[in-house]
Amino acid sequence: MIRRSFPPDTPAPVASRPGELRTSGFGTTLFDALAPPPAPAAPTSDSVFDVCHVGVVLRALLFVHGVLAIGALFVAPTWASWLVAFATGSSAALPAVLVWLLVACAARRPFGALPVAGQWAVAIGLGALSGAAGSVFVWLAAGDPAGVPAWLAPALAGAALAAVVFQWLQLRAEALLPADTTARLAELQSRIRPHFLFNTLNTALALVRHDPARAEAVLEDLAELFRVAITENAESVSLAEEVELAQRYLAIEQVRFGDRLIVTWELDPDAGHARVPPLLLQPLVENAVRHGVEPADGGGVIRVRTRVKLGRALISIVNSVPPNGSEPGHGIALRNVRDRLRLMHDVAAQFETRRDADVFRVQIVVPL
């Protein structure tokens, strides 16, 4: 575990509050107008058969068992007989669906390289084989070697359900094509471009004459932030890269606020391997500064922590909240983070916010 904190720095001589640099309060509109749109994002998947996601598995299982539950109503006169029919069918459907998903996941690249007709044939054929295999599994589990498994009906049902699932996978893949993804990510990305350009430039100008080394460090941090914001965007970055970018942002704000801003980092290097959308943490720590530190006469505290738990990376950002509160925002940054996490990780990611007494917490969970 790495613990790192930024010690308070000596502020520049021009101040509006004790220990705080005076900066201009504008820049959002002009910078957003000048910043070029992000480059097209990379596709999130290279195959229609990319079912190696928790969300896809859960939806496929729910769909098949939902169809099975409705179908059992046609042959069961009572609720008790319906329950027996559903349980019997589930014992065959569950392994069949899992086999289909496992094979599709393992062979997604060769299957995805086939022509469309071949993909349909593979999907339906694999569904028929999985359905037949499920019926054989139930037959063997029943311990009746003298009987003959009724495999034809399960095979046909498996083929039909596989066709429906594959059609849904095609629609899902089309929704994640670069054209659509680029439009959605561009709209989201435009909301989180760092809009403190003029504040930071004024901070650097105030430092140039009496502390040029610190002015140079501020401009270097600003340049790195803007490089990430306006250059070609990757589909994902490592959490370690995001943490480094957030550190640069808070280093700039540290110069601006001086000893009114206290930042503590508790970083687990193993969590840094997790993949997250670019510019994920910066708007969150910016929110912490704007609503937790800036409106408080005595400043505030921000704590950023990363750790690994049960094969997942946990990120928490906690900031103090002034007693008199701050001007409420529009929640754009929070919605942005939630939308981008859902677009990238689906149900495998979690995003929670809550107010606890005098602190505000943001917690993010992403798979490793």
Extended strand count? 10
Order of helices and strands: EEEHHHHHHHHHEHEEHEEHEE
- Shape from CA axes? elongated
Average pLDDT works out at 78
How is the largest sheet built, in terms of strand order?
Answer: 1-5-7-8-10-9
Distance linking N and C termini: 17 Å
Structure explained in plain terms:
- The protein is of the alpha+beta class.
- It has 2 domains: 2-41 and 179-367, Heat Shock Protein 90, CATH 3.30.565; 54-175, no CATH class.
- Helix content is 55%, strand content 15%.
- It is built from 12 helices and 10 strands.
- The chain has helices at residues 28-34, 54-73, 79-106, 108-112, 116-142, 152-175, 178-191, 197-208, 212-230, 239-257, 282-293, 332-345; strands at 2-6, 15-17, 20-21, 237-238, 261-267, 275-276, 300-309, 312-320, 350-356, 359-367.
- The strands form 3 sheets. A 6-stranded mixed beta sheet has the order 1-5-7-8-10-9.
Can you lay out the helices and strands and say which pair or pack?
Elements: E1 2-6, E2 15-17, E3 20-21, H1 28-34, H2 54-73, H3 79-106, H4 108-112, H5 116-142, H6 152-175, H7 178-191, H8 197-208, H9 212-230, E4 237-238, H10 239-257, E5 261-267, E6 275-276, H11 282-293, E7 300-309, E8 312-320, H12 332-345, E9 350-356, E10 359-367
Parallel strand pairs: 5-7
Antiparallel strand pairs: 1-5, 2-3, 4-6, 7-8, 8-10, 9-10
Helix pairs in contact: 2-3, 3-5, 5-6, 7-12, 8-9, 9-10, 10-11
